[in-house]
Amino acid sequence: MTVDGDLGDPGWKGAAVIDTFWETNPGNNVPPKVKTTAWVTYDDRYFYIAVKCDDPEPRKIRAPYVDRDNVIGTDDNVAILLDTRNDRRSAVELRVNPRGIQGDAMFNDANGNEDFSPDFFYDTAARVTAEGWQAELRIPFSSLRYPKADPQTWGILVWRNYPREYRYAIHSSPIPRGGNCLVCRSREMTGITGLPSASHLVAAPFVTAKESGVPRDPADPSAGFVNEPAELDAGVDVKWTPSASLAIDGTVNPDFSQVEADVAQLSVNTRFALFYPEKRPFFLESVDLLDTPIQAVYTRTITSPRWGARATGKAGSTAFTALVTEDRGGGLVIVPGPSGSDFAPQDFGSYAAVARVRHDLGGSFAGFLVTDREVDGGGYNRVLGPDFQWRMGAADLLTGQALVSFTETPNRPDLSPDWDGRSFSSRAFKLNYQHSTETLEWGVLYRDYGDGFRADVGYVPQVGFREGQAGGGYTFYPTGFFSNVRPYVQAQYQIDTAGALLTRRNFVGVLLQGRYNFAGEVDLTSEAVRVQGRLLPKQQLVYFAQIDPSRRLSRIGITGFLGEEIDYANARVGNGGLFGLNATVRPTDHLELAAITDLQWLNVTNEAGLRGRLFTAFVGRLKATYNFDARTSLRVIGQWVGTDRNPELYTFPVPETDGVFTGSALFAYRLNWQTVFFLGYDDNRALDGSQVLQPQGRQVFLKVSYAFQM
């Protein structure tokens, strides 16, 4: 069947029809304001879906050309959730907008996560018509995982996003308000027969080339720049599916240019390590299997893999994944504590392994996780333990995990004073209960992490504490600008393992939803935090607001706080705030301008009675993207991160000013997510002592990758 957005293809005759839809937001499962029809069919190689989205005013269709995976709620789109195992646990989510641009994800019903890191091979085409818009999707069976059975039953949920005066959500199944699952609402497709079980192989080799420039003498800016010799590199990602229920992945020297540029985050006056998403394909097969209540797996801790191997599959009601990789090291290792986290250079190689098994029990499941990192030259971290989720009904959900870790630190006191070859063990425990109905929602949470707990293949930046949380809210559904108003309260209490208070936080707030996809939140918080042995109080007004006004100004939002804030470095309380502004403007359907700014400040009084501005920190980022078509784009980014300080107000020496500017340009052509051509340029500059931006590094790079499918 030809995939061109024309639904007149004879292949659609006799296809199964889905023509009953419900408006699930802002309406409560009421008849939609616009008509949606979907068709599904298949042959011996592909699964096909067509969707026709009627629109009484086609000129209002929001149909910009955007990057892959940037098909979001500001614009018209359709998402297809396919539960090919029919376990009501997770689903492949395939999106398409009126330009035929793709966005794909894994939707995990266990925690409601919609993870856009994974990518899948599938073809799309769409067109805007006089009656609205329509799209076709062709999904190779090799991109899907399904059991060995004949006939088969799958789950499907079609979700249309229709942003006009409100952001209307239209689903092919009723979605009860306050429910604790989405995939579980899928409609069943029965009688699917004759699906292929033969093996499929994808090999995606890549070649990169880069030439870097560095200062001849970093201490002397006038010494000029020197170009280092050009570097060539190569590697390959391989995926073999011997059957539809088993995938074998291998990688040699995976390329970090597959990782998107990290979104700017202010790191001044923070206590714990920041989190960034994974994008390397090897780590993303059935990524929901590694998503557990305690984040004991965070694959970006595997900094520079030399090679890796992985097996993922499902047998009956039991799903599993296991991977092993050699990490050449580099980057930083999180060294956690009860009041904050530190870092140490990962100046050593290691081997890392992860395995998890999950057994489905009706709507619930039980799992078991094992991770291991073995350090070259001595040292290890091994973590294991069970997890579970008990879905007690449509309104009640109990989730928990218990882990024990066994650690021997590297004997490298030159890297960290905590690394002296010691051996120790500890535990981590988390239990969470949630009750959710159409109007009432409340829950309780308990966490207990021992002082010696470590998860060196995970993201656990705080240990050595016990914590209890309780909170709840009540939702009103008014008419007018606001469609959803939810006042709520929450209390949190955290102590260290000796019983001393670490944090106490109470707050009341209100969540708001309304016209033009408006979302807002206002909180009044009262908090006490232990810093350097002292319990310091703070009270703040915390705010967030975001709205999608039109096709051209597709999104604008603000976030921040005002009030008391703790100076963590100097252990005292001051007054300050944070103001963040983000906006996305589309002057045309091809050009997108996205701006992000964050301004943070703190005023304090030192022991001598001197009062003033301790610091002002600023992040400014502007990204301009011109999408020539669905495959070809040019992206330019400029970003400034700077901090001004008053050294007289610090208790230790600090520079008065520092700042870093990074600029980049990238031309990209993507035939699919693994067949790509990239040509780019990076330029990094930093302020010197004379407040002049001096070059720190520059790079020209090229990448070519092609996916061979056999």
Q: Which terms would index this structure?
A:
710 residues, mainly beta, Immunoglobulin-like, 24-stranded antiparallel β-barrel, 8-stranded antiparallel sheet, globular
Could you characterize what this model shows?
The strands form four sheets. This protein has a 24-stranded antiparallel β-barrel. Strands 2, 5, 6, 7, 8, 11, 12 and 13 form an eight-stranded antiparallel beta sheet that branches. The radius of gyration is 26 Å and the shape is globular. Among the domains are: 10-192, Immunoglobulin-like, CATH 2.60.40; 270-464, no CATH class. 32% of the residues are buried. The chain has no helices and 41 strands. With 710 residues, the protein is mostly beta strands. Strand 30 (501-514) and strand 31 (518-531) form a beta hairpin.
